[in-house]
Design a protein that fits this description.
Blueprint: E1 6-11, E2 27-32, E3 40-43, E4 55-57, E5 67-69, H1 80-91, E6 94-99, E7 122-127, E8 131-136, H2 143-153, H3 166-186
Parallel strand pairs: 5-8
Antiparallel strand pairs: 1-2, 2-3, 4-5, 6-7, 7-8
Length: 188
């Protein structure tokens, strides 16, 4: 069980994740839970990346799913160093990364029916201060659905007009499937 010591949220203004951050690249907002203070904005890396990491992390960690990561390619190892760099300020020095799939298994294709019968890919990233369970969204997932999964997995607000859209309904189903798999694996 992870004990949260940071309150991380990754947001992207271009997709409506955060109204008060107006950058084209992703930013991480980390707030210490020990003392209430205004959010601090940390840039991802020292330079602006052409393809910033697509990640969302809930404010409160310790759930079956704490957020989601939407890699840009099938080979997630290429983006893993950037993921670690983004999560280190939030979780502390990364001590382990555990996955619930074999190296030959691709994540389910969320664009078409049939994903319900396949194991969702969840990565647990543990640091010296906290850990996060991240749902892995296949790189080929349509952007509207992938962004909705990112929002739902991190428990970010959803506009009421978006709650009737297919992307929201499917994202909720994907998240519930991943949570049930995690609960079943933990023996609840």
């Amino acid at each position: 069980m992870c004990s949260p010591s940071y309150c991380p949220t990754t947001r992207h203004s271009g997709s409506g994740f955060c109204e008060h951050v107006h950058h084209r690249d992703y930013r991480v907002c980390a707030v210490s839970t020990a003392t209430p203070a205004p959010p601090m904005i940390y840039p991802i890396g020292g330079r602006r990346h052409a393809n910033p990491i697509r990640l969302s992390v809930a404010c409160e960690l310790g759930r079956d799913i704490d957020g989601a990561w939407w890699p840009r390619a099938d080979r997630i190892t290429n983006e893993l160093p950037e993921l670690v760099a983004v999560l280190t300020p939030l979780l502390g020095d990364i001590t382990s990364i555990n996955v619930n799939w074999s190296s030959l298994q691709r994540p389910p294709d969320l664009n078409w029916p049939g994903w319900q019968h396949k194991r969702q890919h969840v990565m647990t990233v543990s640091g010296t201060h906290a850990c996060a369970n991240l749902l892995i969204v296949s790189y080929a997932t349509h952007s509207a659905l992938a962004l909705m999964v990112l929002r739902c997995a991190a428990n970010l607000p959803i506009e009421s007009a978006d709650r009737d859209k297919p992307a929201f309904l499917i994202a909720g189903s994907i998240l519930r499937a991943a949570q049930q798999q995690r609960e079943h694996a933990a023996g609840y």
